[in-house]
Design brief:
The structure is a single chain. The chain is elongated. It is mainly alpha-helical. Helix 2 runs antiparallel to helix 3. It has 6 helices and no strands.
């Protein structure tokens, strides 16, 4: 790569970084921004692994997962405790979880009276940017 090409790459990378939080996430604000961007990209690309932004989603997910592993210890607990943890971390109420269903259904899950189905688990994993295994 020539010096001129390298300068062009650096310029474009810096421009991209103003839009997309690529790199190590150091603060909750960085993390929130990365999760929001990842959600937007996933909404755009869906399941299309050949979409031009699929690799960007993969890269962002690596940074999000690294931040979560270092800063957001997920408690070894039952489903209700795990869901309460995520709700607390994201400032959510029972009515803020359409992935599960109505407020009444969320209440039953939090009370341990109801399990989550595959659709609900997939929705929550996508929303919080974690593996579906977290909710199993």
């Amino acid at each position: 790569m020539t010096t001129r090409q390298m300068k062009a790459v650096i310029h474009e990378y810096r421009r991209l970084r103003t839009l997309v939080p690529l790199g190590t996430l150091r603060t909750k604000k960085d993390y929130a921004r990365a999760v929001a961007m990842l959600d937007e990209i996933i909404d755009e690309i869906g399941e299309d692994e050949k979409h031009p932004m699929a690799e960007l989603a993969d890269a962002l997910s690596v940074f999000v997962e690294k931040y979560e592993a270092e800063h957001m210890a997920i408690p070894e607990a039952n489903l209700a405790a795990i869901l309460k943890f995520f709700m607390n971390e994201h400032g959510l109420r029972q009515t803020d979880l359409p992935e599960i269903g109505s407020q009444g259904v969320v209440s039953e899950v939090l009370a341990g009276k109801r399990e989550l189905n595959t659709r609900q688990i997939t929705g929550l994993a996508k929303r919080f940017g974690v593996s579906p295994a977290v909710f199993l």
